[in-house]
């Protein structure tokens, strides 16, 4: 299914946020209700292609590349923070003016979507957040001085780090499958094809900016997160894989921060639930979205 045979792909478009030129794709069917798909860290908008190809029957699907990812501009001379990502999503949705909108998002993208929905609750109709509540221990940061020192060391280290060049496209595909061994060969090909650039010397590198790896010294603590989540008025589906590092939000109490949240744990899935168990994920999402 690497080429999604029989499915016409999306069109590319651009918008601006903080003077950055950011990219998104549009899967058409503008007469359908709007659906936003937001990818995770070091990923890209085309990682949603299998989900988009299915849900485009019922929705007008939009999928952005977050700043520093995919075909969006890098934030040169600036850090990548949660508030900037939220601002970018707000800029895109304001430009599109498609409200209320349904959102499906993964990992970093799900964290962004949950914050957007808490700030603009009237704008979001339903939200599927896949592994987007953050890693364990998020609510217990180190001291502020230690976090600042660590962040400076990380940034200085990243300045010395050059993007890895792969001698061939096939070598990049191997790395993709190493990152998620659950991917099929067809999935790995498709994700790699849309996730790399080819240099003039014939080598390949990932499109994302290495600086997106740095963690902000101003950690978004769990108390603040819970306060924002408490303002979300739409139904929320919290999805997790039973083989992922992400803890159960019911067991650790984070699900209680939401007014209306349902937890869906999918067996045989790791962090990339929508890749690892696509059919099961789609059934759960369709049921929650009321489209069967």
Secondary-structure blueprint of this entry?
Layout lengths: L10 E7 L2 E7 L7 E5 L10 H7 L4 E5 L17 H15 L4 E6 L1 H12 L4 E7 L13 H17 L8 H11 L5 H9 L2 E3 L5 E3 L15 H8 L6 E6 L19 E6 L6 H4 L1 H12 L3
Parallel strand pairs: 3-4, 3-5, 5-6, 6-9, 9-10
Antiparallel strand pairs: 1-2, 2-4, 7-8
Helix pairs in contact: 2-3, 3-7, 5-6
CATH homologous superfamily annotation of the domain at 11-134 and 222-289: Alpha/Beta hydrolase fold, catalytic domain
At the third CATH level, what is the topology name of the domain at 11-134 and 222-289?
Rossmann fold
CATH architecture of the domain at 11-134 and 222-289: 3-Layer(aba) Sandwich
Instruction: Show unreliable segments.
Output: none
Q: What form results from the Cα inertia axes?
A: globular
**Structural category:** alpha/beta
Mean pLDDT: 94
Quick one: CATH class of the domain at 11-134 and 222-289? Alpha Beta
**First and last CA, distance:** 23 Å
Number of strands: 10
Query: How would a textbook summarize the main sheet?
Result: 8 strands, mixed
Helix content: 25-40%
β-strand percent reads 15-25%
| Run of helices and strands | EEEHEHEHEHHHEEHEEHH
- Taking all Cα atoms into account, the compactness measure Rg is 18 Å
How large is the count of helical segments?
Answer: 9
What's the arrangement of strands in the largest beta sheet? 1-2-4-3-5-6-9-10
Question: How would you concisely characterize the structure shown here?
Answer:
With 292 residues, the chain is of the alpha/beta class. The chain contains 9 helices and 10 strands. It has a domain of 192 residues: 3-Layer(aba) Sandwich (Rossmann fold).
């Amino acid at each position: 299914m690497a080429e999604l045979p029989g499915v016409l792909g999306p069109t590319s478009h651009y918008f601006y946020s903080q003077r950055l030129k950011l990219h998104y794709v549009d899967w058409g069917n503008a007469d359908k209700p709007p659906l936003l798909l937001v990818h995770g860290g070091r990923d890209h908008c085309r990682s949603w292609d299998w989900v988009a190809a299915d849900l485009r029957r019922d929705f007008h699907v939009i999928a952005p590349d977050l700043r520093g990812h995919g075909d969006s501009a890098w934030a040169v001379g600036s850090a990548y923070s949660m508030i900037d990502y939220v601002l970018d999503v707000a800029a895109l949705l304001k430009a599109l003016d498609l409200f209320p909108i349904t959102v499906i998002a993964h990992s970093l993208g799900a964290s962004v979507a949950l914050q957007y929905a808490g700030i603009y609750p009237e704008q979001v109709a339903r939200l599927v957040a896949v592994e987007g509540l953050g890693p364990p221990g998020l609510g217990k940061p180190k001291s502020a001085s230690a976090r600042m020192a660590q962040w400076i060391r990380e940034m200085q280290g990243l300045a010395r780090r050059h993007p890895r060049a792969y001698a061939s496209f096939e070598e990049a595909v191997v790395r993709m499958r190493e990152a998620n061994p659950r991917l099929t060969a067809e999935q790995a090909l498709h994700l790699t094809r849309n996730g790399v650039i080819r240099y003039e010397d014939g080598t390949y590198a990932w499109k994302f900016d290495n600086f997106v790896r740095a963690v902000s010294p101003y950690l978004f603590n769990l108390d603040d997160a819970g306060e924002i989540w408490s303002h979300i008025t739409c139904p929320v589906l919290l999805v997790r894989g039973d083989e992922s590092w992400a803890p159960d939000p019911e067991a650790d109490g984070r699900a209680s921060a939401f007014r209306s949240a349902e937890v869906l744990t999918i067996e045989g899935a790791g962090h990339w639930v929508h890749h690892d168990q696509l059919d099961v994920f789609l059934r759960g999402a369709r049921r929650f979205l009321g489209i069967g």
